[in-house]
Amino acid sequence: MKTDEIEKQINFILLGVGTALMVGIMVSADFRHWMGEVMNAVLGWLPAILPFHIVLFALAAVTGLYASLIQKYTMDWDYLRRQQETMKGFQREFREAQLAGDKARQQQLQVQQREMLGDQSKMMKMQLKPMAYIGIVSIPLFMWAYLYIDEHIIYLTFPFWGVQAISDTVLGPIFYWFYWYFICSIPISQIIRKALNIGGM
Prior knowledge:
Helices cover 80% and strands 6% of the residues. By secondary structure, it is mainly alpha-helical. A two-stranded antiparallel sheet has the order 1-2. It has a two-stranded antiparallel sheet with strand order 3-4.
């Protein structure tokens, strides 16, 4: 079997696993609980040696590194940057044509815009594909954190809000623990992406 065929089969399997995990956690509470229990066998020792907010910080670092590596090696960043520049130029030209009242130029640009839809669709697929790979690691980690927090009462001090139970919600469906994870992940991801020379999309 050729290397390319093996690589395609591996990619197909990984995409299938990632998609199955995403669908599974959306439709089945039992599946979410089962996944949390499985991951607890792997990670359950961490809160015994580290404060849980530090554990969440470590998870943010792991998922940030993993996601950045996946994006670096599954996306054509040169192509995406070129398309971004093309789109910016198109928007600038279209705006200028509108301000100048140049109807003929606007019609030409609208034809060009329809031709660009294929490139936009390719960009969308390119950006969505890594999500399935990323989910293979991030979804089990999130399910473990969710299960652990559901079974333990944990408090954390936040600026302006004071001491809060991390299982409570900040706003709508957003939990304090996820807010803390998100705040931790931003600087970590930016540092990693800078080091890997990949941009934000």
